Amino acid sequence: MKMARKAHLHRMFSPAGKRIRKMARTITTKAKTILQVATIITSTTR
């Protein structure tokens, strides 16, 4: 019973989950690039 309910919830939220995952991926990549730029700036200013 629990497994079936879990599968149903997953099926319902699969598109939303995909969208959230995509957004999270883009945010992480942006943060990585910002960090790289910040490190470069700090290294050059030193």
Features:
46 residues, mainly alpha, single chain, 0% strand, rod-shaped
Question: What does this protein structure show overall?
Answer:
Helix content is 96%, strand content 0%. The radius of gyration is 19 Å and the shape is rod-shaped. It contains one helix and no strands. The protein is mostly helical and 46 residues long.
Structural class: mainly alpha
Rg, Cα atoms, Å: 19 Å
What characteristic shape results from the CA principal axes? rod-shaped
Count the helices. How many?
1
Mean of all residue-level pLDDT scores? 80
How would a textbook summarize the main sheet? none
Terminal residue distance = 62 Å
Element-by-element helix/strand order: H
Helix content: over 70%
- Low-confidence sequence ranges: none
Q: Into which percentage range does the β-strand content fall?
A: under 5%
